[in-house]
Amino acid sequence: MTSSNILTTHGDDDKNKQMEHDGTAVIQQQVANDMNDDTREPDQAYLRAPKRLRWFRGTLFQMFLFGLLSFSGPAMSDAIDNLGGGGLATPYTANAANSANYATACAMTLFGGPLINKMGIKWSCIIAATFFPIQGASYYVNSKYGTQWFVIFVGAIGGFFGGLLYVAESTAMLSYPQPHQRGKYIGIWVSMRNSGQLLGGAISLGVNVKTAGVGAVSITTYLIFIVLECLGLPGALLLSPTSKVRQTDGRPVPLAAPQSWKIETKLLLKHIVHKRTLLMFFPAFYSFFYGGVYTTYLSLHFSVRARALSSFLYPLVTIMLCTAFGRLIDNKRWSQKTRAWIGFAFWAVPQAAVFIWTAILYAQFEKHNLKGIDYTNNTADWFRCYLPYLIIQSTGYACQLYLYWLLGCFSSDVKSSARTGGLFRCFETAGQAISHGINSRTSDKRVPLYINIGIYCLMVPTLTMLIRMVPSNPQTYDDVTEEKAVEAVNETQETMAVEARGL
């Protein structure tokens, strides 16, 4: 080899090493920027823009739009479900449909993080919103023609669309608000979702107020719900792409660099086995498990108009409770960890009392064969039997608000939040699927209650360990994001090495 060839080879090696070093440094700097909110400079063009545009791109308006989506989609579904068994004469078809829905949603949300990262939050919501009216239509068809298979079929395929919405809104809840506004903004979302149920409950009560006996609700109820479910699509179309969303100080939402499907899959697998994810399983699984247990309880033991009143009353209480709760956990007088403990006690203690109360009531139901409980015939019995339902439903939403807030304490970029939110909703919908599944049979209804109590007992110690990991003050560093940094650097090094060998 000549001296000139030797010099050329060494020069190429030096050049390749420099390229590799520079590329790695760029990625490392990008990841450092993603981990540190302080490096995200306020968008001066946004701050100089007209007030209407700032409002349109701001996180607060985005939260209102997510609230509208929840209002017209999940809230209307919940309003139907809160009639007790979907308003049908018996709860078993509705429970089977809900079980199928949450089972497919569980499968969808498991891989929801990578899907949302590729499709984007806005388009995921648009796709999900197109399906909203079909679910209400399935209950209408069943009520009018007795077509039970259609309710179950729509429930099953609806899980895929609902799963997209679950992960999209979870991602936004975890990453859009600033730390000191998280409780407030999530509270807005929860309140708007319950305002949908409140409106649905008012409609149900107005249509069914004269029906004192047991049985199905008026078929007109479903037609009104279908109209309201059509509002979701316009709301989804108004959402801003995540890259254009701005926080109150003008900073963009923290975004990480796009990843390949291979890297997204690897990061998802790392997320699944992460300690925090494993600790999150039982709290998420538990959070809405009560749904199947207590809607069946309502359907079997209360009159039609008492169920209609419930669908109006409990969202009203929930809105007030969650609004106050959101402000409580945003209170800066206490450290973040102290607020985590206070928030936990806020909903966990009343729910423990409700389980004991309900177990006593079930023994009385069995002894006296109580059915068709109505608020006009025996107000004392109605209040005594309905109050535990009201408490579990309202504190159930406080529980979910709290879990979103808690996961947001380990804040990171949007893509990491998508994986966290997807797995959270995966665990949550798994609990809902099993809850409605075991309540779709005519067995002793005390058994699902005892299972619910057992899951509560498993939830408490795991959530306690998760709370102990909460930093005393808000932070943006996330060790799962650090894993992404390592993966990104390794991927870049491998790519540059291949390109260098080809020079």
TrEMBL record:
InterPro entries the UniProt entry points to: MFS, MFS_trans_sf, UNC-93-like_regulator
Locations listed in the record: Membrane
Matches recorded under PANTHER family: DUF895 DOMAIN MEMBRANE PROTEIN-RELATED, ET TRANSLATION PRODUCT-RELATED
Record protein name field: UNC93-like protein
First-listed, main subcellular location of the protein, grouped into a coarse class: membrane
Region (Disordered): 1-20
GO MF annotation: an example: transmembrane transporter activity
Keywords tagged on the record: Membrane, Transmembrane, Transmembrane helix
Record's bilayer topology term: Multi-pass membrane protein
Lineage, opening ranks: Eukaryota, Fungi, Dikarya, Basidiomycota, Agaricomycotina
Residues spanning the membrane: 55-76, 123-141, 147-167, 219-239, 278-300, 312-329, 341-363, 386-407, 449-470
Native species: Kwoniella pini CBS 10737
GO cellular component: membrane
Signal peptide: none
Basic and acidic residues bias (residue ranges): 10-20
